Amino acid sequence: MRKKRMTLTIACISALMAILPAAARAAEPTREPVKVHGHWTIEVYNRDGTFASRHEFENALTPNGAQLIADILAGKTNFGLRIFVTAVEPGLPPCKSGLSATPDVCVICQPGDGIWFASATSIFNNLVATATGGTLVMIGKIDIANTTAIGLVISSYSNSTGWSSGDFATTSTFGLTRALLATPIPVEAGQTVRVRVEISFT
């Protein structure tokens, strides 16, 4: 388990370090801060695999995300990447916990990170993260268990810590980037949602 965790950490740090130093050096002569841009694409597919809908929107860097970037540049943190997908409180979360079958937030983890939560059916261990052309790209998918509307999405990271229900309040700053959707995305039980997050630095 420790070997898998170390491999995950090295891969994540390498992906971001491949992007961040260049952006930081570019900003240094004029002392302008590095700007972070986030773009999400969510595609919904029906149970039979047919396409249902596509949605694109931007997100904002959280104060925690800004601190994480500073820590990465300083070599102070180890982490894995995660994506959270849920409804706006008090709406019904789109997934179910395997432990109690109660409604739960959907979480996409990288293999080797999500394995810590192997018994929870709301955890999907299929997140793939790559650094391409100065952009960090995270891709994953979830299976919808409850008919509801997706209204909050968060890109986040793991440093061997979990999360709490308060992290999904509209006033929370939990995560790396997060978006509260002006128009929630309707989803039905049995559908699959594919998520793509692109984070770039200038």
Give structural attributes.
single chain, 17% helix, disordered N terminus, 202 residues, 42% strand, 3 helices, two-stranded antiparallel sheet
Describe this structure in words.
34% of the residues are buried. This protein has helices at residues 2-17, 20-27, 63-73; strands at residues 36-45, 51-61, 80-86, 95-96, 103-104, 106-109, 123-124, 128-132, 135-143, 148-158, 177-187, 192-201. With 202 residues, it is α+β, with helices and mostly antiparallel strands. The strands form 2 sheets. The chain has a 10-stranded mixed β-sheet with strand order 7-6-3-10-11-2-1-12-9-8. Strands 4-5 form a two-stranded antiparallel sheet. Strand 4 and strand 5 form a beta hairpin.
Order of helices and strands: HHEEHEEEEEEEEEE
On the 0-100 scale, what is the average pLDDT?
80
Strand count: 12
Number of domains: 1
Contiguous helical run count: 3
Give the uncertain stretches in residue-range form: 1-11, 21-30
Biggest sheet architecture: 10 strands, mixed
Separation of the first and last Cα atoms: 36 Å
The portion of residues forming beta strands comes to 35-45%
Main sheet: which strands, in order across?
Answer: 7-6-3-10-11-2-1-12-9-8
**Percent range for helical residues?**
10-25%
Q: What's the alpha carbon Rg, rounded to whole Å?
A: 17 Å
What overall form do the CA principal axes indicate? Answer: globular
Structural class: alpha+beta
